[in-house]
């Protein structure tokens, strides 16, 4: 379990739209349900040093959910 899983599950963030597929998450390096990286990260994303699997073209669903959390 990753910090992204904990945040996504504890905040009860809804599942993102889009068709998921099993893959390697570029953020965590783990195999999990994912979405295409091109649909999640825009071209301005430049923090590639934070990616554990920078060559992966997938982003974990729980990473997407956690990153979508907005401060209230």
How would you describe this protein?
Helix content is 26%, strand content 18%. The protein is an alpha+beta fold and 72 residues long. A hairpin with a 6-residue loop joins strand 1 and strand 2 (31-36). The radius of gyration is 11 Å and the shape is globular. The mean pLDDT is 91.
Count, helices:
3
Query: How many β strands by DSSP?
Result: 3
Q: What number is the mean pLDDT? A: 91
Order of helices and strands: HEEHEH
For the sheet with most strands, the description reads:
3 strands, antiparallel
Shape: globular
How much is the radius of gyration in Å?
A: 11 Å
Low-confidence stretches: none
State the oligomer.
single chain
Number of domains: 1
Q: Cα distance, first to last residue?
A: 25 Å
Q: Roughly how much helix do the residues carry, as a percent range?
A: 25-40%
- Order of strands in the sheet with most strands: 1-2-3
Please identify the structural class as seen in this structure. alpha+beta
The fraction of residues assigned to DSSP E strands is: 15-25%
Output the keywords.
72 residues, alpha+beta, 3-stranded antiparallel beta sheet, 3 strands, globular
Quick gist of this model?
By secondary structure, the chain is α+β, with helices and mostly antiparallel strands. It is 26% helix and 18% strand.
Task: List the topology elements.
Elements: H1 3-10, E1 21-24, E2 31-36, H2 37-40, E3 58-60, H3 61-67
């Amino acid at each position: 379990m990753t910090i992204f899983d904990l945040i996504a599950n504890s905040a009860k963030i809804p599942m993102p739209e889009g068709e998921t597929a099993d893959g390697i998450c570029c953020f965590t390096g783990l195999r999990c349900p994912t979405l295409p990286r091109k649909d999640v990260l825009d071209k301005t994303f430049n923090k590639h040093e934070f990616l554990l699997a920078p060559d992966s073209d997938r982003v974990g669903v729980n990473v997407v959910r956690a990153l979508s959390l907005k401060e209230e």
